[in-house]
Write a structure and sequence with these properties.
By secondary structure, the protein is of the alpha+beta class. It contains five helices and seven strands. The protein has a five-stranded mixed sheet. The chain has a two-stranded antiparallel sheet with strand order 1-3. A hairpin with a 3-residue loop joins strand 6 and strand 7.
Length: 157
């Protein structure tokens, strides 16, 4: 059970705060982060702490499972009644057989690698539950060896 404080927020400011908090990890792997979030994007109606956790989990994964000198792009656009966010990386990607189970609690694609990088198998499950609690949906596209894109929708304020 989550206690939520739903208010309007600027998506770009939430994303920038998380990027700043991960700056050390980003620099350690020489990763380039590109952000393409329009300044005139409508505010999103969310719980700030929870959505920052979503960004933290997804960007942290994009760093961990990326190649040195890789790239992460964060883009957003509006559709009829939601804002769609994409967090894409140029990392190792995820095998197709693992995609259906990716948001299950404690599920890890590569147990050895996850232990090495400190994964618990909870991050993506938390992402899914937070997005759903904020009236959004979450999606994944991935090509093994080429990278992954995690997308989610959030309601406009």
């Amino acid at each position: 059970k989550l206690t939520m404080e739903i208010k309007p927020y600027k998506l770009i400011s939430l994303a920038e705060k998380v990027i700043t908090s991960l700056k050390g990890q980003i620099e350690n792997k020489s990763i380039t982060v590109k952000m393409n979030i329009p300044k005139n994007l409508p505010d999103i109606l969310v719980d700030e702490t929870r959505i920052k956790q979503v960004f933290l989990n997804l960007i942290d994964n994009a760093i961990k499972y990326n190649h040195p000198k890789g790239e992460i792009s964060i883009t957003a656009h509006e559709t009829d009644d939601v804002v769609m966010v994409d967090i894409a990386d140029t990392g190792i990607g995820i095998p197709n057989k693992d995609l259906p189970r990716l948001f299950e609690r404690f599920y890890r694609v590569d147990k050895a690698r996850s232990r090495e990088l400190g994964g618990t198998g909870l991050g993506l499950s938390i992402v899914k539950h937070i997005i759903q609690a904020n009236n959004g949906e979450v999606f994944i596209k991935s090509v093994e060896g080429q990278g992954s894109t995690f997308s989610f929708t959030l309601p406009k304020a």
